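Dear colleague,

Following up on Tuesday's group meeting, I ran the structure prediction for the two-component complex that the binding team flagged. I've pasted the input sequences exactly as they went in, so you can double-check that nothing got truncated or mislabelled along the way. The structure tokens for the whole assembly follow below. Feel free to forward this to whoever is handling the docking comparison.

Inputs:
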Amino acid sequence: MGENIVGDKPETQMKPLGDSGILVQFGTEISPDVHEEIKAFTDCIEANSFPGFIECVPAFTSVTIFYSPLLVFQMYKGQGKPEDLSPYSIVQSILQERLKSLHTSKRREKRVVDIPVCYGGELGPDLEAVAKYHQLTPAEVIDIHSQAEYLVYMIGFAPGFPYLGGMSEQIATPRHSSPRLSIPAGSVGIAGMQTGVYPISTPGGWQIIGRTPINLFYPDKNPPTLLTSGDIVRFKPISIEEYKEYKETVL
Amino acid sequence: MSLRVERPGMLTSLQDLGRYGYQKYGVVVSGAMDSVALRIANLLVGNKENEAGLEMTLMGGSFLVEEDLLIAVTGGDLAPVIEEESIPLWRPVWIKKGSLLRFRASRSGCRTYMAVAGGFDVQEVLGSKSTYLRGELGGLKGRALSAGDKLTCGGAAHRFQHLKSSAGAISFAATAWHVNPEPFINLKETVIRVIRGGEFDYFTESSRDRFFKEDFRITPNSDRMGYRMEGTPLEMTDSFELLSEPVTNGTIQVPKDGNPIILLADRQTTGGYPKIAQVATVDLPLLAQKKPGEIVRFKEISLAEAEQLYLRQELQLEKLKAGLSLKVDETA
């Protein structure tokens, strides 16, 4: 139990992303089950790639595989008439083979990453407004936000920016109608049903409820980000003193 | 060997063929907008194709050549000169130390590439020397060049030593032969070939029709991240929310205002707007050489055609590479 074979599912579809990419769609709704299939497929391709493979980019309901059409063509050209050989078709049949034998396991060990957050005050200027919006106290918003476990569905938008699932509807809050010009790196925010952390300073319309002292993006390391697709994130409330102490030890 | 930047030009940055392998971490690919021009420039000076070169935009910079240097300039023509003497494009050029190499306003195209023998000596970040300007990553301190910067070039030019002797007392010498760029690019062409995008069918019939029949203008609000196009706004059959998914070089997405955006080298890794089309890889260099204000038209081709065009171009580049390696050897 807890296992299923993905290749038999009719929902799995493939379509081209230009002439050097292929998108494999595992469903149409965001769900932890679809995510597990994407995770298993990504791991399978990365562990045992094919000639011409460049990289996999997992998303909410799909994973895109980028490849070099030239290398794919050169590897397989002896096997048919050149005009019949479309690099896309070759990659598609390789991926279909992989899908047939793909298993997902509900028991996958997930990496849990604790992110310390100093909520409210100067570092979380919108905490009060978010609380007021839901007729909660700021402390209740902090509790709700920090007691959940969040699944990293994908990384995108900016280096190391996690798209997280699992936030309580009780604190879902619309974005600001006009975005702030600059939100500092480390800011923790809410936008609609989403919560997230800004790895680098950028303009944005999110409701900022706190800030983490830790880095989410470090380009001189590999992997270059704190989080990766498939991780579990927990936010741990810390005081402003702890925040400052943390900052000093990091620097 | 080094180059000193006297004037940086409008936007000059170090670019190689891009930072691949880290898109799943949200790391932007970047790299040369006209990758074919950069590859040929590198081949001309005996470098690996994916070495970093300088990408200059519309108005080029001025560089003091502090050591003898072998260079090649390709792509758009930003009218390079040394002491009013034109530097020819698409061939190896030997330059004597102390010369001032000046690029000027564009005569044709938008972006020029300059490769130096041995490449530019900067630290790779995540396997690439490309500059991602918005993220302040890679290249020279993550930014565009500015006056006073010093670029260290990789190594002495062993190739084309005969150019040095033929230069004699004058400051530069170029080969009589050059690479013909015509098989790769025709800057006068205004038709960009595309294949249908993932959400093509979600657009209204008249929008789909117009997309291939009407002109689109590249607006001034266009850069390495993407070209914002202007035409009759395109409409969806009904409102449509797409979950974020990966995009790529040449993805044409249409936000709510109906004006297409063509994503280019510095695009984000994922996007949530419907994708009406995708530029064929072979036409990305042509697009990169179009300037803001210019008009293009989109022409639909099949995926199979785009693949065949791409393979043909790569075979042509292979042939060029083989031919150049002979030239490089016979004069070494």
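Chain B is about 20% helix and 25% strand.

Cheers,
M.
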